[in-house]
Amino acid sequence: MEPQKTTKNFSDMDTATERSLTISEKEKSNGIIAYITVIGLIIAFVQNQEEKSDYVNFHVRQMIGLALTGIALSWIPFLGWLVAIGVIVFWVIGLMGAVNGERKLIPIVGEHFQDWFKSVGA
To answer: Would you list the DSSP string of the chain?
Structure first.
């Protein structure tokens, strides 16, 4: 009887191991920097122009969407305050995804941000 061979592919690996194999520390740092104010967003965008990274582009697009949403809707009385709270919550979710090395879409609007700003970093 021949012993069974087991092979592992990326789908079998846990996400932490997969993350460590797919992004560098520089990419992770730039992803985090993208969420640190608008200046951080610009810094991450410019640094990513040398070595194009889909990971950094992902987080830059998420943050562009959050910033524009916050700016556009913050002028509406009362609704703007609710939107501001939502933007802060979504910002924390995006930042935590970047800290953990994940491409975590911001709930509700993240997929739209990726579509609307797909030319960013292309």
So the answer is: -PPPP----GGGS-HHHHHHHH--HHHHHHHHHTTSHHHHHHHHHHHTTTS--HHHHHHHHHHHHHHHHHHHHTTSTTHHHHHHHHHHHHHHHHHHHHHTT--PPPTTTHHHHHHHTTTTT-
Q: Is residue 10 part of a domain?
A: no
Query: What b-and-e string marks burial along 13-28, b requiring 16 or more CB atoms within 10 Å of the CB?
Result: eeeeeebeeebeeebb
Global confidence as pTM = 0.76
Report d(CA 16, CA 71) in Å as an integer.
34
Q: What is the pLDDT of residues 87-96, one digit of tens each?
A: 999 999 999 9
Per the domain annotation, does 77 fall within a domain?
Answer: yes
Domain for residue 13, yes or no?
A: no
Range of the domain at 97: 20-116
Question: Per the structure, how many domains does the chain have?
Answer: 1
